[in-house]
């Protein structure tokens, strides 16, 4: 037994040291030149975005085969599944981001990165107009591409409901999490300065989340945890007055989960004093009040912090692109074929993740991640096809039957994208989670504290880097031993 523990201890330490070494010392990278050794031109692949789809593509791509250019206003990857834990301080923001530079240094061939946003994609001339996001270093460029992958994600939708944009916070980016944190703490401190009988105090302590999808549910759960587990220690009287309300237009929250899990979550919310308002649709928002319709009744809900999580809408750059292509007639996202090629763009533009709409594929990290992996394998084959076409052109014989046969064979190997659904997980508060897992052809469902441990280990395993894994684990340990604080 002693020997086994000794060996496993040594193995564990060895593995840890190797991972730490790898994190700090990326391998040397091939500098990119305009042509390959055989004289053929290196094609330019522009990747828009640094989210789940684009980063999964980048990590799996043989970047030495292309002149790879990444364009994104965000110079990091954000691990969104743990974003709802950040406004209340369960997880620190730095723990769930991974810099693009460190990802780009770990791939085989050099990658160019522009901290910029794509404004306009021209599918005909194969160019993309980009604009820097750095106010002190403003520039606009037209990048020429042979292939482009659109992975710009989506923006939060407000359905045009008056007052949402001006008064609510979203939960999509790091800046959103910081804003929510600031609003919560400011409201709490303001309320503390007012007498308990003041109605303004009640409004200041009313926190509302709109949208009973997984984002809204997970954030409401984290917020209630924070109030009950930590704020209650620092501000015992005031914390008991804090009201967390979750508003959902449909008869149920978490519609992608099995009914038994939804019932479990709703029951827990009741127990945890999250005021769940189902069949309640928000119609208007002012600086202090939300007006919602429940049945035939209109109800006013005073609030101080409003988090809006009602799903996705296409970004401007995707909308512009849709307008340029006649076949693009969906308002829900860019239409793609089963090989992730943008309809109407003749094979030069691909799209992944939340910016797309394809029946049966939902806007989740899981889908975007698998699409990125798939595209990396497609680009390997496209490189081979392009090389063969170049060889044929060198021979001045585009119809060379041998080469054409080889091209056809490789083309046949580019099979349609197939999504493998692993299931869905959600944190629902009080150290409990729900899981709807796909095991083979059947679904396995579980809920409770054990599922929460599974949720934690699954997300830990999914983190982008070893560094993220260590930081997230340390954050959980910190909250367990020291709790969360009440500073801004
Ligand atoms: P994103 O990851 O959103 O990335 C888009 C990228 O494009 C970003 O880098 C952005 O900066 C960049 N960009 C934006 N505009 C431009 C532009 N004009 N030009 C260039 N780049 C641009 N899914 C799950 O499966 N499981 C979960 O647990 C889960 N939890 C979530 C929690 C939260 C709070 C949220 C908001 C989402 C969650 N999701 C989850 C959904 C998941 O995050 C998305 O489906 C996923 O991020 C989509 O990946 P994407 O690459 O399409 O877009
Ligand atoms: P969502 O689209 O899943 O849910 C939005 C909810 O808001 C819907 O239930 C809708 O009925 C409700 N709604 C819309 N308008 C409303 C109004 N005016 N008043 C009240 N309610 C209204 O959006 P969400 O949660 O932002 O998720 C986006 C995507 O990200 C989804 O595909 C989701 O699966 C994925 N995601 C997955 C997570 C997980 O697996 N744990 C966590 C977070 C997001």
Automatic annotation (TrEMBL):
UniProt KW keywords: FAD, Flavoprotein, Mitochondrion, NAD, Oxidoreductase, Transit peptide
Compartments where found: Mitochondrion
Enzyme class: oxidoreductase
Reaction it catalyzes: a quinone + NADH + H(+) = a quinol + NAD(+); a ubiquinone + NADH + H(+) = a ubiquinol + NAD(+)
Listed GO CC annotations: mitochondrion
Domain of life: Eukaryota
Domain FAD/NAD(P)-binding: 44-372
Family: Belongs to the NADH dehydrogenase family.
Annotated protein name in UniProt: NADH:ubiquinone reductase (non-electrogenic)
Species assigned in the record: Zygotorulaspora mrakii
Taxonomic placement: Eukaryota, Fungi, Dikarya, Ascomycota, Saccharomycotina
């Amino acid at each position: 037994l002693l020997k086994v523990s000794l060996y496993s201890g040594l193995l564990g330490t060895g593995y840890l040291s190797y991972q730490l070494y790898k994190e700090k010392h990326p391998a040397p990278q091939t500098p990119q030149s305009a042509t390959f050794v055989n004289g053929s031109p290196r094609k330019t692949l522009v990747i828009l975005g640094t989210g789940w789809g684009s980063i999964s593509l980048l990590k799996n791509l043989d970047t030495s085969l292309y002149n790879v250019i990444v364009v994104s206003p965000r110079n990091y990857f954000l691990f969104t599944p743990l974003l709802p834990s950040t406004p209340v301080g369960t997880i620190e923001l730095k723990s769930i981001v991974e810099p693009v530079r460190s990802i780009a240094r770990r791939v085989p061939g050099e990658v160019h990165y522009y901290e910029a946003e794509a404004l306009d994609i021209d599918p005909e001339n194969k160019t993309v107009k980009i604009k820097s996001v750095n106010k002190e270093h403003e520039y606009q460029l037209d990048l020429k591409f042979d292939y482009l992958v659109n992975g710009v994600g989506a923006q939060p939708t407000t359905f045009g409901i008056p007052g949402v944009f001006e008064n609510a916070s979203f939960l999509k980016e790091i800046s959103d999490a910081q804003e929510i944190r600031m609003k919560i703490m400011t409201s709490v401190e303001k309320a503390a300065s007012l007498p308990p009988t003041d109605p303004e105090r009640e409004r200041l302590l009313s926190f509302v989340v709109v949208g009973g999808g997984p984002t809204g549910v997970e954030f409401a759960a984290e917020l209630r945890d924070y109030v009950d587990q930590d704020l209650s220690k620092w501000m015992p009287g005031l914390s008991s007055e804090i009201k967390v309300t979750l508003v959902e237009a449909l008869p149920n929250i978490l519609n992608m989960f099995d009914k038994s899990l939804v019932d479990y979550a709703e029951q827990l919310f009741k127990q945890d004093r999250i005021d769940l308002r189902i069949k309640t649709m928000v119609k208007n928002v002012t600086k202090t009040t939300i007006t919602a319709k429940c049945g035939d009744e209109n109800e006013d809900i005073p609030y101080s912090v409003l988090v809006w999580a009602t799903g996705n809408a296409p970004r401007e750059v995707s909308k512009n692109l849709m307008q340029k292509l006649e076949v693009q007639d969906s308002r829900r996202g860019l239409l793609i074929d089963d090989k992730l090629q943008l309809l109407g763009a003749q094979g030069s533009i691909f799209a992944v993740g939340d910016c797309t709409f394809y029946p049966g594929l939902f806007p989740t990290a899981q889908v975007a991640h698998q699409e990125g992996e798939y595209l990396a394998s497609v680009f390997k084959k496209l490189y081979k096809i392009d090389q063969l076409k170049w060889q044929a052109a060198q021979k001045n014989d585009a119809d060379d039957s041998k080469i054409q046969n080889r091209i056809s064979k490789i083309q046949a190997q580019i099979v349609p994208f197939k999504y493998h659904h692993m299931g869905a997980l959600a944190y629902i508060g009080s150290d409990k989670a729900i899981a709807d897992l796909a095991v083979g052809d059947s679904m396995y469902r579980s809920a409770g504290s054990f599922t929460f441990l599974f949720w934690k280990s699954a997300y830990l395993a999914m983190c982008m880097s070893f560094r993220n894994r260590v930081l997230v684990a340390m954050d959980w340990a910190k909250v367990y031993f020291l709790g969360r604080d009440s500073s801004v």
